[in-house]
Design a protein that fits this description.
Two copies of one chain form a homodimer. The first copy, chain A, is mostly beta strands and about 230 residues long. Chain A contains four helices and twelve strands; from the N terminus they run ββββββββααβααβββ.
Chain lengths: ~230, ~230
């Protein structure tokens, strides 16, 4: 089956570094879903204003072909979720890992606004990288989609460890209109690659055309500069 | 982007007629998701037993190319949801209509059991037809997927009109082990095509290898025979 993008995501987070690991984790992060021709028409979004959330079906376009391959089957059957520390294997269909057959991602995101004339939906809480191709947009229908009491397997017990975020003197002011709220949420999720724990190392995050420099010592992330 | 089925759905409902219009509407209807090679391996489902629900991403394979085409754009931009009586148009991205770009379906279904050795997940409440190709299975993660208080647009106010279902004398007994519960749920959703309202007309539903004959008068559906 061949599918074609119907929309593309625009995010202030440029590149893969810092993209939240699940939707809703950076609840203040605002992105835009832009319909592509021939769907970039007001009619295609008619009635969406009555919904609070949408589903996006998208492609994990920034990942490689898979973290590794199962030797016997020649395909990826298990993955090691970061949530479990990266050492425990679960089945690929028991995880939301990007390393999966067909590389399809699924996210519920909050509607912040709809600009029908431009064919744009402004959304909050996305876990998609800038430029991600989107293959479908569906309204979130609570009576069939919401199961708040459902058991969530390993995600129930293993919480994300979040960092405390502070800005070095003067840096928050320098960041200006960047939207410190969303930036703080993104940084608190600890964007560092797994297993890296070097308090002297400086990291850089591309956000809204600015470079955000930070270090991490223990559970404290300090933003050193924004330029 | 080319995607390939990783599983197939098996349902006691043969054909399209009677397939629920949304997941969860026939909560007792049990189906099987069968992994296809090379994914038909116990490892691919490891850890799924800790979850109550899964997402299925699938293809609306039984539908035609679309109900109609927008003249200006050459593509389908709006649809007429049955929930709104079939006369009101909403944007295709504000509906869960099967007549959509890329023909991708999305359903949350309840896990009834997992048979890892066979590569099978038994599920409840599916709105997929027998034989539907499935492109991804993901665990339902309540903290990112459940928004019970979200507004559901036109689905909030327009309830499905359901029918009262009764069995003619002796017929429920004849149905025997068919699973009257699921069958009643399916029939109560009114499987008739829209606009058909002929009390003399007899309909037939293929269910679990049997033929279920019924008529509808007003809000009452009567099962006449099961053979």
């Amino acid at each position: 089956m061949t599918i074609e993008p119907i929309a593309i995501l625009h995010s202030p987070l440029e590149g893969k570094f810092g993209v939240p690991r699940q939707s809703g984790l950076a609840a203040s992060l605002e992105c835009e879903v832009e319909l592509l021709p021939p769907y970039r028409r007001e009619e295609a979004l008619r009635g969406l204003e009555g919904f609070d959330y949408i589903w996006l079906i998208w492609e994990f376009s920034l990942n490689g072909k898979g973290e590794e391959t199962d030797e016997k089957a020649g395909v990826q059957l298990t993955v090691r979720p970061p949530r479990l520390g990266g050492n425990t294997r679960v089945g690929v269909f028991a995880s939301r890992s990007p390393f999966r057959p067909n590389r399809l991602g699924l996210s519920s995101v909050k509607i912040a606004g709809i600009d029908g004339a431009r064919g744009v939906i402004r959304i909050l809480g996305a876990d998609l990288a800038d430029g991600t191709p989107i293959y479908d947009i569906k309204p979130y229908v609570p009576y069939s989609d919401a199961h708040p009491d459902a058991r969530g397997g390993f995600t129930d017990s293993a919480e994300w460890k979040s960092l405390k975020v502070e800005f070095a003197p003067g840096v928050a002011e320098a960041a200006g209109r960047l939207g410190i709220g969303a930036l703080t949420e993104i940084l608190s999720q600890d964007p560092r690659p797994q297993y890296q724990d070097d308090p002297t190392r400086e990291y850089g995050l591309s956000y809204a055309g600015r470079n955000v420099h930070f270090k991490v010592a223990g559970d404290l992330l300090t933003v050193i500069a924004v330029d």
